[in-house]
Structure formats: structure tokens, C-alpha cells
Structure prediction request, 261 residues.
Amino acid sequence: MNKEISLISWNVNGVRAAERKGFLDWLYQHKYDIVCIQETKTHDPLNLNEELLKPKGYNSYWACATEKKGYSGVAIFSRITPKKIKLDFGNNILSKEGRILQLDFEKFTLLNIYFPNGSASTERLNYKLEFYKEFLKYIIQLKKSGKKIIFCGDVNTAHNEIDLARPKENINSSGFMPIERAWLDKFVENGFIDTFRHFHPQKSNEYTWWDMKTRARERNVGWRIDYFYTSKDLKNKLKGATIMTSTMGSDHCPVGLKLNI
Prediction:
């Protein structure tokens, strides 16, 4: 029997801050099946509130940047028990900085990713591009092995002009440079579906991140940089994709995906 499941991805900009702003109440209220968060900013989950480690009805799984405290990090809260958990992606860039967590479920493989930001320096931009390269190589291998793939997270790049409020002003800004956007093209070329655009191909003024310093959210001067992608073999299972702009608590808002598995 098929069952509709709900998945959420949200860059919370610090899990402790999110907890103070009502993250657990939000989790209990909506009872999503799987919630992926990025930028947890914790190097040791055991130092967190016990309820955050095991919310009622959920198991939690964490990948942390152990070499740099208060940096990066991802976690998944799941009401469905995975068959396998993966944190180590070999001796390469994917295993550094606590940026990827993979859970293998019976019907699909889920990867929660916090892609690097390239705006700080040329070195970090190059790091980001290398990360895209290694990640694409990895998911192509996964796909070839027969896995049905969902990957989500803060991709840190707006794909097309429709995906940010001011494309012309940002053509040379990291997050919208052609060299970065080309990697999102490659995801699509290699058979991965941007699920929001699958359901809303022409919908504009829909963003997932706003600059807090300029109070850009009030004016909706934003960027769509948070995504759910799936492999094409899940296309007929897709039931809906949303951007939850009214959900507060971070400089990002959550994005959602519904699947009939």
C-alpha cells in the first residue's frame, strides 16, 4: 500500500537559536515525517537539550564539523527508521566540515546537504565548486547502483533569474555566478528534478533566504537557494512541493516535498 510522506528542509541558522524560537513546538504541531536541517552550528550534539536529541515521535541523526566549533553541521529528524546511516564519504571534500548526512530508507535514499558558501573569498568559491563536483560524481554513482535518490538542503546558489529578486545586480555575486549555476544545470542534465520548479515552473517572487541586515524579508528581496531534488525514477511519486515563507525562526524558510511511496 502506498503512503504519502512529508519531507522538510530548513537552514535553521543555529539549532540552539531555532530551539529558543520554537523549533520543537513547530515540529510537534506539524508532525512531518522527515525534517532535514542545515547549519546546526554544533560540534557535539550530546551537549544539546535532551529533547532536541530525541523529540517525541522522532529519532535524530547528526553530522557535525568537529574541527571547527559552532560551524556548519546538518541533522535529520525522522519518524521513519532508516536501514542505514552514512556520515563518511571517503577521503575527500564531502567528508569535511559536517556537510552531508545520508539515510537509506526502504524505498529511497535521502541526502541532507549544507553546500559551502563561496562569498567569503576566491578560496572558498573554489572550495564550493570542488564540493559540487565531488557531490555530483557521488550521486551519479549512487544512481547507477540503482538507488532512488532525494537530496535536499541549502544549495547556496540561485539557479535562474526567476530564483532571485535582483538577478542583474547579482550576476557577479557568489550565489548567482554563471560558474556556480552551471553545477545546478548539471544536476538537471544528469536526471535530477528540481521539485519546486516541477510543480511551479513559472512561479516568481518565491524565495527561501533573505538578508537579515537589510530587512530584505519584509520587502521580499530574496533568493531561492534551498531545494529538494529527486532522481527521475521518483517523478511519478511526487505529490507537491512548497516554500513556507510564513514560517519564521531563521534567515531561511523551510521548503517541503510530498511523495507517495
Observations:
- The chain has a mean pLDDT of 96.
- The longest strand covers residues 4-11.
- The domain at 4-260 is CATH 3.60.10.10 (Deoxyribonuclease I; Chain A).
- DSSP finds seven helices and 14 strands in the chain.
